Amino acid sequence: MSNQEELIRLASEIKNCQKCPLYKAATNPVPGAPNPNAEIVFVGEAPGYWEDQKGIPFVGAAGNLLDKLLAKISVKRDDVFVCNILKHRPPNNRAPMPDEITACTPFLKRQLLTIKPKVVITLGRFAMNYFIPEAYISQTHGHPMSVNWEGLDLLIIPMYHPAAALRNGQVMKQLEEDFLKVPEIIEPRGLNLRYQSKRSVGAKILNQKTNSSTEKAHGFLGSRIKTNGQLVVKPAPPPEPEIEQGKLF
Ligand code: SF4
What we know:
By secondary structure, this protein is of the alpha/beta class. It has helices at 3-15, 22-25, 49-54, 60-72, 98-115, 125-131, 137-140, 162-167, 169-180, 182-186, 196-204, 212-217, and strands at residues 33-34, 40-44, 81-84, 119-123, 145-149, 152-159, 205-206, 224-227, 230-233.
């Protein structure tokens, strides 16, 4: 089974999941998107309002900022996989509860074990603490850590959440500085960002027939269109001019 097929199957499970109460008030699940073969995975906290509306991670103001930061290091959204600790939106964007994290993170684990990225960039303390439980974001942001996690050799780079940066100028400055350090952190470890776009071509054209039932099962099909029997990954739609409220980091 290809990474794409496995992520589709996971998205279907997430869509039908009732392991915690968050599915009840959510509009859409937000499993993650778009590159099933990404070498860099971003892990945030939970879907916000626009993510819940669209079923796509990191849209809205925080997603717009993430795309701008990616552009600063010559990376496109199609080059990476972006997801969250929680796959359904907590009411009013409140912080995830421990039992919700426990219930939901097996999906994140299966996503990562499928994609097998080299680098995981955590956005905010909840994502960071999933991999590095005792760490403090104020002390560890921008500092890479090599870990063996579930058999995967990962380079974890903790960063502040973009939503936090939108509310605090100092956090914005630190987030920008941390992003600009990414190339010099990862290139000595054999990952060259200049080749990321070539690698993502495989994610753009998926030589895979689909049907309506399969399509409905894709929690992340908000980023995909059906064209002559093939699935084609579309860039995320333009972010909405919204600054999300609530605690996201
Ligand atoms: S947030 Fe996660 S555990 Fe809770 S219902 Fe959604 S997919 Fe299931």
